[in-house]
Amino acid sequence: MDFASDEEMYMFYNKYARRAYFGIRKEYGNKCRKTKVLTSRRFVCDREGLRGKDVRDHKTNRARAESRCGCDACMTVILNRDTKMYVISEFVQEHNHELHHSSTVHMIRSQRKMFVAQEIETDIAYDSGIRLKDVYQFFSTQVSGCDGLDYISRDQKNYLCTKRQ
Length: 165
Prior knowledge:
It contains 4 helices and 5 strands. The protein has 2 domains: 2-52 and 61-99; 116-164, no CATH class. 13% of the residues are buried. It is 30% helix and 20% strand.
């Protein structure tokens, strides 16, 4: 497959990940030093890698649950300098962990996104004095439950905070 931009690559792998019930993240991206053009990018499962040893381990009462398990699923894309298009060079499909359930896949960080229309409606409702919790409840009832929304209430709050800044 060929891609024209970094955003197009991310959207493709994210759609695949949604259908396969896992989350993704960008591991690295290499750029040309002279032209600053992206030459390669690697997308990985959000459970790739292992957490390093924390120096505060002896002071911790309740450690956080382990979220990384060394999953090898990935997609590496490189720039074809002749066609100026990005081409998939490596694709690993196998996971070494259980995947998310279909009813919870909308809550994975890489899958959450507020659309422009939802941002505008949030602005209007918040400016009219409605609490954020009530705005989120209203939007979720419009789409017959929170599962129909592509974001969580925290994303709505973060959107308003960044807008104010």
